[in-house]
Amino acid sequence: MSESFAEIAWGLAAIAAEFHSRGWVLGTSGNLSAVVERDPLRLAITPSGVDKGALQADQILSIDEDARMLSSSPGKPSDESPLHVRIAKEREAGAVFHTHSVWSTMFSDLHFAEGGLAIEGYEMLKGLEGVKTHEHREWIPILENSQDMWKLADSVAEILKQHPHAHGFLLRRHGLYAWGKDSRQAKWHVEILEFLFETLGRTRSMDRIQ
Amino acid sequence: MSESFAEIAWGLAAIAAEFHSRGWVLGTSGNLSAVVERDPLRLAITPSGVDKGALQADQILSIDEDARMLSSSPGKPSDESPLHVRIAKEREAGAVFHTHSVWSTMFSDLHFAEGGLAIEGYEMLKGLEGVKTHEHREWIPILENSQDMWKLADSVAEILKQHPHAHGFLLRRHGLYAWGKDSRQAKWHVEILEFLFETLGRTRSMDRIQ
Amino acid sequence: MSESFAEIAWGLAAIAAEFHSRGWVLGTSGNLSAVVERDPLRLAITPSGVDKGALQADQILSIDEDARMLSSSPGKPSDESPLHVRIAKEREAGAVFHTHSVWSTMFSDLHFAEGGLAIEGYEMLKGLEGVKTHEHREWIPILENSQDMWKLADSVAEILKQHPHAHGFLLRRHGLYAWGKDSRQAKWHVEILEFLFETLGRTRSMDRIQ
Amino acid sequence: MSESFAEIAWGLAAIAAEFHSRGWVLGTSGNLSAVVERDPLRLAITPSGVDKGALQADQILSIDEDARMLSSSPGKPSDESPLHVRIAKEREAGAVFHTHSVWSTMFSDLHFAEGGLAIEGYEMLKGLEGVKTHEHREWIPILENSQDMWKLADSVAEILKQHPHAHGFLLRRHGLYAWGKDSRQAKWHVEILEFLFETLGRTRSMDRIQ
Known about the structure:
The structure is a homotetramer.
Chain A: H1 5-21, E1 31-37, E2 42-45, E3 61-64, H2 81-90, E4 95-99, H3 102-110, E5 116-120, E6 137-143, H4 149-162, E7 168-171, E8 175-180, H5 183-207
Parallel strand pairs in A: 6-7
Antiparallel strand pairs in A: 1-2, 1-4, 2-3, 4-8, 5-6, 7-8
């Protein structure tokens, strides 16, 4: 692991600010984490209840694999820390980002009954890890939302096992989780999936009736 | 009260610029205030007729509970000062923000006949003060617009009493008022409610006919 | 006249950059002018064929009432200079701004057959010079587009006489002209009218069928 | 050729950042090139797999007419380098930009069956090289997407010969290619075409049913 905690934290704060300016983590929504050490697992994570547009690197917290705070910094880790830990483990992800955009919130609801949605045939899919052609079909599972984060983490782990190739999932009326081998790739995955939701959404707004 | 007037004013100017860049306070629309002293009540408030994208902290004015200017600075307080004062009192709010976005303007008109609109089941609601679960149902009252700001302030006070749990209200074809215990929380409340209006608006544009 | 040419030019460049970031003057579209002297008339104006996002104050040109260059600077004044001169005269405007946004382009086409469109009942209208209440009805004339700028300037002058209270007009499939007593007010008028077109456009996209 | 490689590279990085902020080159999508020398042909081009919002000038690579790297810098040229080289040759373009926006992706799909789409009667068209009036009719060819970039480059060359006046083309579900005599003009062409797609898209979302 070549990056220090300070560098990782700085990167998370920069990405949080960019996502905030796009309207993807408004209010206190959204949270971002990155793996600092793999064994034992240690994550840098955004604190709960902060403005992602004004977040400073020194507010980033450190948690262990049980989502317990390791640092004695002020602040408390995101409520959704258990999901970050679980995804980091299941996918061996280096970074886990949760956005809460308008379009991802909409699709998490519109396709909930089918358990997910498929996106297929777009060049943009090629930016996802391991995808070599636009002919790829990406299945994005949708889970029911819950306030019991440990239970939700179990559901997430199960879904990730069922869909070993998925690059992200939606929580109903709650938004998107995506990840990558590092912060750079996780950011690309978020941008790619958000782009695709917007493209599908605008297409559907236009063509639904014809 | 730990923040000085200068710090509060600086914060209001920064938030005004951010809201302006999002298109929520275009032209001379929108106004922001924060409580400097509670007893006697003293508010920092944006002046009337300024570009919120270029507002400087030293342009922020000071008013009392009758919306009279306390400072001898150039400029005059927002015409809507009586609403700010009333909300600060009724809700014991530390900050009151009024935005004038496209989506809030639209919803203030579309649901006027029903006296308000309900938003329910979105995770984003959890960012509102006191809301613990996405299963919350938020009722956002809508009032008729008026140019008589003291009369409008009375109507607002009445509506706030009728809906003691409301986190914001709409003025018809005029936009959103939201507040919080401080500027930070009031900003979150604005972002959350604006996000929800946009989500409902885009969903309705997409699904209305099916 | 208290502002120097340099200050006016700096202001126009700053506004051009802001409009560009909003997507209102993409490509080489849009142009901005401000009166430097009233008698004889002398305007500062953006040059033809420049990126409004990268325009520097020292690129702003000086023209007379016949739209002839006064300065020996490189560059040539906007092709639409005759319109700026005419509006500055007819309205005694201190600044004239032409934007070319998506929504203004759409409305310039959708309501062309009726010769204009009315906007009524929005609080945002109160930001227009001389408007005291949201109950105001603003008529925005629409003119056929042309490449003969002197002929178009004559049509504009005629329309301005017919509608002495109009704060702006549209050129068909070409965009918006608005003005004000100075750059600050002209900018507000642009923001206000652009806001109203977007609001009407999104409302119509949502409700047309019900 | 008056610009040095360093100046050209700096310009490409600045434009890439601006396009990224508009959401036109999200994820790892999009690529930009500019001609450094004409004979033998030498292009500056954005590397493969980089964040266009964080791209630095010293990451820009140099390639020859066979899309082979000339510099020993780290990084590898965009996979789509063969298309850039071919367009630079066929059109004698000084810069070739590929964006991947939501609206261009949508139109590349919606009009694929007709082999392209016509845009006519908009003032914005006048910003395209050689277009003197808004009465111009611009035909934008659409090609099937492919992962075989050399084969795709051949199809592109053929389409460019068939449509000698086209200022851009679309790849199906993949986005827009546009070019110009230099980076400045290529940027204008991208902004103009993206504006027109958005205008057509929003008009169609609004009026389709009436």
